[in-house]
Q: What sequence folds into this?
């Protein structure tokens, strides 16, 4: 299911990139932890899914996982640093082609997207296989995403060129979560902690919704005014809660 970039990736050296700076060391450790956590929670699919994060202090290079590694194998030193031209700036190996074309274009075209996680995690992906809106406002966890999602209705095959990455970034627009119908999800965030928090709770909300739907009883949506208020209440504390969530998860990995 995976494809590598045609002709491989040329190696370039950015002499002004200090991978040992405290901010970069922290980011690499946090991103590597997110891969391991996703594996622990069953949110990955073989070697085919990918996470990326812009290198702290930079707008031209990003971290991404190398092709051929399962999520549970990823460590800080495993991560690649790539630029928007397909060059590996640091690290051994190369990204899977769809990882490059999706993530490079998301980061380049949507500068607010400092972190992007793409998975085929089962419950959220199951919602992508249904007609109509994927995530419904049925419970408190789902309200964390109220008004923050977009839907790509036009599955277009593998992202093997820049045009597909551009199309996906265009559909995502200002949303933080993109449901790719017949495919999977992309979660975008300003920080690694916030992206992880959203990824985790998105799958939980999708799981609860599918369990409710499986009863074949009528669903009970939350009225808009209450849903909006609850969303606003949750969003006020989301960055702090996300940092605490990731810190707790990383302690349990140790």
A:
């Amino acid at each position: 299911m995976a494809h590598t970039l045609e002709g491989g990736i040329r190696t370039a050296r950015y002499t002004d990139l200090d991978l040992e700076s405290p901010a970069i060391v922290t980011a690499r450790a946090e991103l590597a932890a997110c891969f391991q956590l996703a594996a622990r929670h069953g949110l990955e699919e073989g070697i085919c899914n990918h996470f990326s994060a812009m290198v702290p202090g930079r707008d031209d290079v990003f971290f991404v996982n190398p092709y051929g590694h399962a999520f549970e194998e990823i460590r800080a030193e495993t991560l690649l640093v790539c630029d928007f031209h397909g060059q590996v700036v640091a690290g051994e190996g190369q990204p899977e082609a769809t990882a490059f074309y999706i993530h490079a274009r998301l980061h380049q075209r949507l500068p607010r997207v400092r972190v992007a996680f793409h998975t085929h995690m089962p419950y959220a992906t199951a919602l992508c296989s249904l007609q109509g809106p994927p995530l419904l406002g049925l419970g408190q966890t789902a309200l964390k995403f109220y008004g923050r999602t977009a839907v790509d209705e036009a599955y277009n095959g593998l992202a093997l060129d820049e045009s597909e990455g551009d199309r996906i970034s265009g559909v995502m627009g200002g949303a933080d979560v993109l449901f790719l119908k017949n495919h999977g999800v992309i979660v975008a965030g300003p920080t690694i902690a916030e992206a992880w928090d959203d990824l985790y709770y998105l799958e939980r909300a999708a799981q609860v919704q599918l369990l409710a739907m499986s009863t074949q009883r009528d669903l009970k949506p939350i009225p808009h005014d209450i849903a909006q208020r609850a969303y606003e209440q949750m969003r006020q504390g989301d960055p702090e809660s996300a940092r605490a969530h990731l810190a707790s998860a990383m302690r349990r990995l140790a």
User: Anything to note?
Assistant: The domain at 22-253 is CATH 3.40.225.10 (L-fuculose-1-phosphate Aldolase). The chain has one domain: 22-253.
